[in-house]
Design goal:
Elements: H1 3-14, H2 20-31, E1 39-46, E2 51-59, E3 62-64, E4 69-72, H3 75-82, E5 90-93, H4 100-109, E6 114-123, E7 126-136, H5 143-150, H6 153-187, H7 203-212, E8 219-222, H8 229-239, E9 247-251, H9 257-265, E10 266-267, E11 279-280, H10 282-285, E12 289-294, H11 301-313, E13 315-316, E14 325-326, E15 329-335, H12 339-344, H13 350-356, E16 359-362, H14 373-388, H15 400-406, H16 412-427, H17 454-468, H18 479-483, H19 487-497, H20 507-510
Parallel strand pairs: 8-15, 8-16, 9-12, 12-15
Antiparallel strand pairs: 1-2, 1-7, 2-3, 2-4, 5-6, 6-7, 10-11, 13-14
Helix pairs in contact: 1-2, 7-8, 14-16
């Protein structure tokens, strides 16, 4: 056969589809009429890792462009592969086991005795991969076959490069679509919340924020639920050199353990049932920016191990993937629990604690900075009036602030926001009194038998709030809204504290 005809027919087929599996299948049908051929294979070479990756193949069963079989090459074989001047462009192998490079491929794919022709694909004086034709049995090819195979190296290299670019464009399209969905969700979050009290009760906290903000050091925020840890994290991010990058928040206690890996590290298409597209995780989204790990003390043991690896290696792997992805992030973590006690109890890894807690900042609860309460009430009144579309901002009744100052605010700043909103709803334009919205100060604490352990106090408070909410967790005036926390977080805490909930539970059983 004339080489020109072989070149023309093969080129029409290899360039006839961006799906490499389909293109190779068409090529195999044609090649079988010209020379022995049981399988065609395309590989891509990664010069940085020395890995030869099979990206498509075709045999009598059809073409496959979804495979990603990798063969690691030792240093001496890497030198041969990368030598585009002295190593032959095409080599005929009568016995696959006598070729040191293809012997490694044959071992991995468990080929029987075979003959091969290997065409090296060179683009811009660089080895990018191989086009291989295989036939069962030894001595099936001669030099005439090798000359024919040499004429299709260039069109195959171009087809391979075009297909890889097309695949990357599809991935980029999916990634951008996913990113747009994520950004739309994030834009609904209120990141412009004012840090009320930065000049008073939070002055020492803000001094520490100003010190550590411009540095790359990890920061651990310690404070009760609702004390404003996320706002402080945002202030640190704004002061950092990463302020133009993303700030991605993760509530570690609100993500089910079965979804934690996918949520944090992302997943590949087909990694599990329901993974219909590739999805980037929170760590990958935070690249060149900051990730905020709220309630990091709630992470289960296995998740702590994986997080430690991310901190050590600065890389992640998506669920279902095999490629390490380098990331450049700053970690700010937060917890309402005492991590040192959790370490002592063996619940939290000490090596992870020391990596996260390089610069701890304690955020005082509202009961320790009551001087901020008037400013907080004023701030939330203005904010809620605007959000609710009220035309007039009600005034405060005489003695209302004194009543608020006597209350200990177990729900901290979030509770203030909820109390102000409920007062506005019930005011009908009259001065706000807060008579029925705030329990008498210390009345519960002075009652006999009051529990002093933190978890017992938390459980008691949740039960009282569930009574007020008539057993409802979600929705308007639900327990989660009253407490100022995510409903999933509340359910997680109730399970942990042994508090029953759900339709089958009578509200009297909760109290």
């Amino acid at each position: 056969m004339e080489s020109d005809e072989f070149f023309r027919e093969f080129t029409l087929r290899i360039c006839g589809s961006l799906d490499l599996g389909e293109a190779l299948r068409d090529c195999l049908i044609y090649v079988k009429g010209v020379m022995p051929a049981d399988e065609l294979m395309l590989t891509v070479y990664n010069v940085s890792s020395g890995i030869l990756e099979v990206v498509a193949s075709a045999d009598e069963a059809g073409g496959d462009a979804l495979r990603s079989d990798k063969v690691v090459m030792p240093p001496h074989l890497r030198r041969e592969l990368e030598d585009v001047d002295n190593y032959p462009r095409v080599r005929v192998c009568g016995k696959v086991w006598e070729d040191p490079i293809m012997e490694r491929v044959a071992s991995q794919f468990k080929w029987s005795d075979s003959s091969l022709i290997v065409g090296r694909l060179i683009i811009q004086h660089r080895f990018i991969g191989s086009l291989i034709v295989r036939a069962a049995g030894e001595g099936r090819y001669d030099e005439r076959h090798g000359r024919l195979w040499s004429v299709v190296n260039e069109p195959t290299g171009i087809a391979l490069a075009n297909s890889r670019r097309y695949v990357e464009l599809l991935k980029l399209r999916d990634m951008l679509a996913d990113e747009n969905r994520y950004l739309r969700d994030e834009l609904q979050r209120d990141w412009k919340e004012e840090i009320v009290g930065s000049s008073f009760g939070l002055r020492e906290v803000m001094e520490q924020v100003w010190k550590v903000g411009p540095l790359p050091s990890p920061v651990l925020l310690v404070g009760e639920t609702g004390s404003g840890k996320e706002l402080i994290a945002h202030a640190i991010h704004n002061l950092s050199l990463r302020h133009n990058g993303p700030l991605v928040a993760v509530n570690c206690g609100a993500i089910p353990e079965t979804l934690l890996d996918s949520e944090l590290f992302g997943h590949e298409k087909g990694a599990f049932t329901g993974a219909v597209t590739q999805r980037r995780g929170r760590f990958e989204r935070a690249d060149k920016g900051t990730i905020f790990l709220d309630e990091v003390g709630e992470l289960p043991a296995q998740a702590q191990v994986r997080l430690l690896r991310v901190l050590q290696e600065k890389e992640i792997e998506r669920v279902g993937g095999s490629q390490a992805i380098k990331i450049d992030i700053r970690i700010i973590s937060a917890t309402h629990r005492n991590l040192e006690e959790l370490v002592a109890e063996g619940v939290f890894r000490p090596d992870l604690y020391y990596r996260l807690g390089v610069f701890p900042i304690r955020i005082p609860p509202l009961r320790e900075r009551k001087a901020d309460i008037p400013a907080l009430v004023s701030h939330f009144m203005e904010k809620k009036v605007h959000e609710m579309g009220l035309r007039i901002t009600p005034t405060l009744a005489q003695g209302a602030i004194d009543r608020l100052l006597r209350y200990d605010w177990p729900g901290n700043v979030r509770e203030v926001a909820n109390v102000v909103e409920r007062a506005l709803i019930q005011s009908n334009g009259k001065p706000l009194t807060f008579d029925e919205l705030v329990a008498p100060p210390r009345q519960i604490a002075e009652s006999p038998g009051w529990p002093f352990k933190l978890e017992e106090m938390e459980a008691q408070h949740i039960r009282q709030v569930m009574k007020i909410a008539n057993g409802r967790i979600e929705g308007k005036s639900g327990a989660a809204e009253i407490l100022g926390i995510n409903p999933a977080t509340l359910r997680h805490r109730m399970r942990k504290l042994g508090i029953p909930f759900g339709r089958s539970k009578n509200i009297r059983a909760i109290g």
